[in-house]
């Protein structure tokens, strides 16, 4: 039946008059595989190459028969075999059992180390395991699994750093816009205020209330008229800078010190 289907396909493609539009379309370029896809693809290829060898498949493709080798678990604490890795490999990859190809590598290396530990040198199983271990390392390097995975991790780290930096950059940009707007508003208010202390007071009051209000600020401003005109202008200019930094608490403290000093000067003058 398969041969018949191939024949029908050939006849259709060679028939006269019919031409599908797909024949004139540009072939779509293959999507380039990501480093992670290349790494996991290498994992599957290496495992397939090992299991395609009959001797390796026969000895290492299934778990060790504990009944046939009752002392095995006294020598080997963590049994592992290629069949277990193969049977669970796809599900492990899909479910995240192997978080990295390096975990797969360690499981395969465990197969060889168990073999060399249990079987003495000179034993044919020992020699087979030694040769398979060497072949695995060669295939592992040939497919560049670890190199591809390092590239993947570098991409992940860069993406994570960008994801962390992006909100911080947006917040910094927004904060800078707010500060610039406050400073602009402060400079406009400074230009509108005339030389009368009451105008300065209202301008500063509006500026500070934009960032912070309350009884403390009201109490300070109620004594605004006690300050000399030159100091009023200096304080207002400082308030414009405080507005750009949103340093309302520092500005309140500065005002309070100025008012305390003015009150002390007034008391000294009246003596």
UniProtKB/TrEMBL annotation:
SUPFAM superfamilies noted in UniProt: Bromodomain
Domain Bromo: 52-126
Record bears the keyword Cytoplasm: no
PROSITE patterns xrefs: BROMODOMAIN_2 (PS50014)
PANTHER family cross-referenced by the UniProt entry: OSJNBA0053K19.4 PROTEIN (PTHR45926)
Compositionally biased residues, Low complexity: 1-12
InterPro entries, per the entry: Bromodomain, Bromodomain-like_sf
Keyword Ribosomal protein: no
Region (Disordered): 1-36
Full protein name: Transcription factor GTE9-like
Top-level taxonomic group: Eukaryota
Pfam families named among the record's database cross-references: Bromodomain
Originating organism: Chlorella sorokiniana
Keywords assigned: Bromodomain
